[in-house]
Each structure stands twice: as C-alpha cells, then as structure tokens.
C-alpha cells in the first residue's frame, strides 16, 4: 500500500521478514524487486487532487534472487532506515518542487526526452510541499491579486521565506557533516509539514473566495486550490509527524521509549492479530 510511483518503475524495494526467530528489527532483508515479472499487479490510488502518486501493489508468487539482496541477509532494517533518512531529508529541503524530474526505465517513456524539457510526473507542489520557491511564487500571486500591501499577508510571506531559507541552510549543514545530532532528517521532515501548512494558509488568504473553486481561470490557475487538497499528505508520507517526534525524543533527546516487550524478543513470540 502507498507505493510511490510504482506504476512507472521497473524496480522496487522489497523489505521482507526472512527469519522469524530473530527480534523484530532483525531478521528483515532488503531486496531490489523486479516490478515487471509475472504475479505483480499495480493499482494507482487516485487522490483528492485527481492525481495518482501512490499505488497498491499486489504480489502473487513473485520471486527475488540471492543477488537481489542489498546490505546483507537479515540486515534490511538498517538499509531501510538509511533509505528513510534520505527520503525525509530530501522532503524537508524542498523535494522536487523547484525543478522537473525524470523517471528512468522504459515504462515511463521518458528516455528520449531532454532534461531541459522538465520531464517527469507532475507531483502536486513537489514532494517537498511546494519546493524552494513557494514564498516567491505566492508573493507574485499576491501582487497579481492586489494583496501585496496587506501587512498580515506580507508578514506570513516573510515567515514562509524564512522557513525556506532555514531548510536550505539545514540541508547545507547536513552535507557538511559538522555538528550533527542524528535527528536532522526528522527535523527537516517536520519543517516541511509546517511550511506546507503555512503555504496553504497564506495562499488561500491571497485568493480569498476563489479557494472554494477549481480551474485555470482562477488566480494562480488553480495551484493554491490543488495544494490545499494535497496538503494533508506530506504530514503522513515518509513517516508521520508524530513518528518524527518520537524518533527525535528517543534517539536525540534520550527520552524513554513507549512501554513494550524487551528488544531481544523473537518476532514470532510478539503479540499479533491472527
């Protein structure tokens, strides 16, 4: 469930339990997975925006091989965490909102296109909640709507721009590897959710009652309205805001974890719904 862009991908990431006798965060293996093999069915999930960025994927008697393993047998949780940290950091620094994106492989049929054509599936506002230019775009829209002298809107645009710049500088700090806490990717993900909520708020204040209707004949050609419909998503995908706060609390601040069985409890001894 919720497999991003699976309808365009030749390869996927499959995380499977390969040893039920090991604790729950062990005994998991990370595989590259052939999405084109028999027994794999992809069904796009249509969102409120009308787009389908996520998918259901049904796997029936499909196969992986030994050489498809990434990171070693039963070590998949470490690889999955590395993947998640890269995703969260990318989302928090603006994602793909400022540039076009291309998908590799023959399914997407983009191999013959030029990079300068900004090829790629349209993702509402970019996966990073509007990209690195949200404040600038809304400032132009405010000018077109005659709202650029409204002191409340000006203050919110300034705050939005400040949040973008803080995200950009945080990304540069992550790349420098100096003074890291281990929670940078999680903080970036939370910042992205906050940025998107503010973007939605100030966008609708700028266009006013047009926020209730869709269409390219409205101010901003429907971009604010589509962003509003999309806005609940980023606080969920890549790990919810609540999950990010739990990780920061436990791994960075050293707060106690929620009650649960000992970490070394074998997976097949954990309570489960059957």
What does this protein look like?
- The chain is of the alpha+beta class.
- It has helices at residues 76-92, 134-144, 151-176, 184-207, 223-230, 241-252, and strands at residues 11-17, 28-34, 40-45, 54-59, 69-70.
- Residues 95-100 and 119-129 have low confidence and may be disordered.
- The two termini are 20 Å apart.
- Helix 1 runs parallel beside helix 4 (184-207) and helix 2 (134-144) runs parallel beside helix 4 (184-207).
- The radius of gyration is 21 Å and the shape is globular.
- The chain has 6 helices and 5 strands.
- Helix content is 36%, strand content 10%.
- The longest helix has 26 residues, at 151-176.
- Strand 3 (40-45) and strand 4 (54-59) form a beta hairpin.
- It has a 3-stranded antiparallel beta sheet. A two-stranded antiparallel sheet has the order 3-4.
- The chain has 2 domains: 1-74, Butyryl-CoA Dehydrogenase, subunit A, domain 2, CATH 2.40.110.10; 76-99 and 120-259, Up-down Bundle (Butyryl-CoA Dehydrogenase, subunit A, domain 3), CATH 1.20.140.
What is the rounded Rg?
21 Å
Overall pLDDT: 85
* Number of DSSP-assigned strands: 5
Largest sheet composition: 3 strands, antiparallel
* Multimeric state: single chain
Q: Which CATH C-level class of the largest domain is it?
A: Mainly Alpha
Poorly predicted tracts of residues: 95-100, 119-129
Query: How much strand content do the residues show?
Result: 5-15%
Number of helices: 6
- Compressed to H and E, one letter per element, the order equals EEEEEHHHHHH
CATH architecture of the largest domain: Up-down Bundle
The figure for the number of domains is 2
- In CATH terms, what is the fold-level topology of the largest domain? Butyryl-CoA Dehydrogenase, subunit A, domain 3
């Amino acid at each position: 469930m919720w497999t991003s862009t699976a309808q365009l991908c030749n390869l996927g990431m499959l995380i499977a339990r390969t040893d039920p006798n090991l604790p729950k965060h062990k005994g998991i293996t990370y595989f590259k997975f052939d999405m084109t093999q028999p027994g794999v069915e992809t069904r796009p999930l249509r969102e409120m925006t009308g787009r389908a960025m996520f998918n259901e994927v049904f796997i029936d008697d499909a196969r992986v091989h030994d050489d498809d393993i990434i990171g070693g047998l039963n070590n998949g949780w470490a690889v999955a965490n590395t993947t998640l940290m890269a995703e969260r950091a990318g989302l928090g620094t603006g994602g793909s909102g400022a540039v076009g994106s291309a998908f590799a492989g023959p399914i997407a049929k983009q191999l013959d296109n030029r990079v300068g054509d900004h090829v790629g599936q349209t993702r509402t506002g970019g996966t990073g909640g509007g990209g690195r230019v949200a404040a600038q775009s809304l400032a132009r829209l405010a000018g077109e709507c005659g709202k650029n002298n409204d002191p409340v809107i000006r203050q919110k645009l300034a705050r939005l721009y400040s949040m973008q710049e803080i995200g950009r500088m945080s990304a540069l700090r992550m790349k420098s590897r100096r003074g890291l806490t281990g929670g940078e990717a999680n903080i970036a993900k939370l910042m992205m959710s906050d940025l998107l909520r503010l973007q939605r708020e100030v966008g609708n204040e700028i266009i006013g009652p047009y926020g209730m209707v869709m269409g390219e004949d409205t101010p901003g050609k429907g971009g604010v309205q589509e962003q509003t419909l999309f806005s609940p998503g980023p606080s969920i995908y890549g790990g919810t805001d609540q999950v990010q706060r739990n990780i920061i609390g436990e791994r960075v601040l050293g707060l106690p974890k929620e009650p649960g069985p000992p970490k070394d409890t074998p997976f097949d001894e954990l309570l489960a719904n059957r």
